[in-house]
Amino acid sequence: MxxxxxxxxxxxxxxxxxxxxxxxxxxxxxxxxxxxxYNFFISLGSGRTHAEDLMQExxxxxxxxxxxxxxxxxxxxxxxxxxxxxxxxFIAKKKRLRETSFAADTDNAGQEYxxxxxxxxxxxxxxxxxxxxxxxxxxxxxxxxxxxxxxxAHYQDLKYAEISEVLDIPVGTVKTRMMHAxxxxxxxxxxxxxxxxxxxxx
Length: 202
Description:
Blueprint: H1 6-19, H2 23-43, H3 47-64, H4 75-96, H5 122-140, H6 144-154, H7 160-167, H8 171-201
Helix pairs in contact: 1-2, 2-3, 2-4, 3-4, 4-7, 5-8, 6-8, 7-8
């Protein structure tokens, strides 16, 4: 693990401490990663309520499975594996209940967990919210396997090799799914951006 950064090594040490029952170490990891994990679920189209529940479920699973943790790479990769499994379990449950739609509520789409004050004007905020909602709805139309790859790459800034670890698929498959996701999104969003360009030139 010589290629790991000092921050990555710190995460691993905290997780090893969690294995001994160290609640303070667990709380430190929770505070560091609650926002990225929450935003991960928001980006997948879960909406605020489900994102909060899934985030809590992810950290509950982390605590319950800590005895099985084996530091072979970045802790964040391990955590996103747990989050991915929580998401897929949720999708499977929804499908069993014949609720096949996992689209976010329109008033929640694209909104992220943020502790920072917003400085945009009301007009800018409205335009950004509308654009985010349109993009989020487009992402929601991707199937789970392509949506996961796209969100991990573009919203969580994971490298293809890291996505490969999280999803347990070859890097080549990650690239193929990314190409498919981006192509599909361009097709879905083309009418919107074409309309926007026409409005600006009229």
